[in-house]
Amino acid sequence: MTENTPGGAPKSAEPSGVDLARVALRAAKDAARARGDAAQQKKQARRGGLRSGARADGRDPMALGSAINRLITERGWEAPAAVGGVMGRWPQIVGEDVAKHCVPERYEEDEHVLTVRCDSTAWATNLRLLAPTLVARLNEDLGHGTVKLIKVQGPSGPARRYGPLRAPGSTGPGDTYG
Q1: What is the mean pLDDT of the chain?
Q2: Is a pLDDT exceeding 60 seen at residue 10?
Q3: Can you tell me the distance from the alpha carbon of 150 to that of 111, in angstroms, rounded to the nearest whole number?
Q4: For the residues of 83-132, what is the DSSP string, one character each?
């Protein structure tokens, strides 16, 4: 079915030549604009990289703290970074007396285990007794489940020397270092 226009000519549902020309012109302009943008980006890349414009984007300079926080978040290092902060604040968390004799050595993220080395077996025993309280205090500071276990190690003994005055198979002073 066709309708009559005010001039009396029949109007069809299909686009006329003028409409087709407008659509084709619009498509050609869009394609040219896209080619121009690609050429401009290649030219900027040859000149030394893309430059940031008037609006803020990811290429703008940022403060060091913001950059580090962004890196930690992007890489998923929140828990190890928090535990590293605990190692730096160890004396405030456990107290000055304990911190003089017990030092955190490493944190195993997979098992959620904090390893602490003590300078004597007496302090190692004392820290083993304090471990549940210390785990609760650390998880309160870091978030639930960050530290599940504190592995306490005593002092490492001197190197075992072999020589003419050593009995074969002896382990040395095991009650002092262990």
Answers
A1: 76
A2: no
A3: 11
A4: HHHHHHTHHHHH-HHHHHHEEEEEEETTTTEEEEEESSHHHHHHHHHHHH
